[in-house]
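## Example record

The block below lists the input lines for one assembly entry, exactly as stored, with component labels intact.
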Amino acid sequence: MSQDVATIRVTRYRPEKDSKPFFQEYKVPYRHDMVVLDALNYIKAEIDGSLTYRWSCRMGVCGSCGANIDGEPKLTCASFLHDFKGRTITIEPMTHFPVIKDLVVDMEDFMEKLVKIKPWIIRDKETPPEQGEYKQSAQELERYSQFSSCINCMLCYAACPIYGLNEKFLGPAATALAYRYIEDSRDQGKDVRFPIVHEMEGVWECTLVGECSVVCPKGVDPMLAIQKTKILGATNALKSLLMPRGGH
Amino acid sequence: MGDAKRYPELRRRLSYRWWTANRHYTMYMVREWTSLFVALYSLMFIYGLSLWATGSRADFLNFLKNPAIIGFSLIAFVFTMYHAATWFYLLGAVVPVKIGRSRTKPWQALVLNIILLIIISFLAIWLVVLR
Amino acid sequence: MKVETHKVARLHALLWGIFSLGGMIAAFLLPVMIYMTAIAYPFGLWPFSSPSGCLYCPTRDPSFLVTGHLLGALFIFVTIAGSLYHGIFRFQTTLTELGLLKYRRALEAVGYFIIFVGIIVLGYYLVAWYLNGTIA
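Predicted structure tokens for the full assembly:
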């Protein structure tokens, strides 16, 4: 196999030394089947052991290796080096998040939001396992299954300018996951979850830029989830206005 | 967990020129600015009515024949059509209609809604002017 | 306090509902409205073409939209009020995305003021026409 050489420009930020981030350039020889994450691993192993970044599964499942590649939020393990042939590849930490070091961002805010929407099945009364599973038809599964594919890679947050402007915004992935449970026929936690997604900084902040759904590596459509949640919120509000005493 | 952060994190602020960063963002910004023309046309029409209220019907009609107003309205027309097209497309993305077993794609919704727009427009002219 | 935030959220939901209804109206009704007032009328095109050579064509102009019959007035009200609400609401949000986020409350206040006054004035003219047979 022939070997090419990629020029890679990586953001360096070493908080103990630098007050500002800067770019550092590396030359990485690569084969056709190598991805950006392989290049980072090559740099760390062969050129500069101080380069810091997150990764784990290197196969698009764990969601830890996200970065901005040439300005676009992507998984470094899913971006082939040969797609950038002849160009310098710029790798920056994911947009909007505070940077801890080099490509490592602070995920605290997202983790808090994730917990906030209660991403688990809520039942009025839990039945013991002996009584069997909570059953669901294929059609019922289809209503939410795409939203359960989220791997929490946060690329959608990096792509969302609304989150960049206002970090209180609940954001794409958390809302998509909330919607995943709202649409789940086994879940009975609507009364708990609706107030969370429908609060001021919840879905109403979204102005349908749509980039979240473009960058998602797992084919989740958070934009759709947010709009559906808005429609549910508006119809519920209208119902409670017309029938203040009526049922739910 | 729980331990104090030793070093400061790098906080980056989003530039207000973020919408120039890629083509999607730019198209989004163009889409959102159509709303200015939608609003301005509406205000302009209300102003035209106020000319009628304080003057005469002819004042209102002359206002509509003012070249500057025609020029602005034509621009507003283009932007409104752009708003309509993007709205139809997003409608298809957010509330796809089920036809048989398959769901409509956004571009199909765009085409179907443009046909609907033409029908509604003729219907409106017929109901409001011709009848 | 919990009830309060819930009420605010509900108000927000309703306002968003009106906003999307306005978007529907602006998409489906505003184009034909602008066509009639700014293209057909000043350029003498259908349905406001001059009646020469057409014995049965009525001579009409956009004032007929307002005072022709109740349906016309209703069409004007729905189209203009819906578009105004949608346009102002959305543009005000766009400004917050271009660096005015910290003035959000002020922008909202100005936006809703314009919407409120615009719709009241529009409604007043149309009701005045309905009651008096003329617009004021």
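The interface with chain A takes residues 5-6, 8-14, 16-17, 20, 90, 93-94, 96-97, 101 of chain C (CB under 8 Å). The mean pLDDT of chain C is 87.
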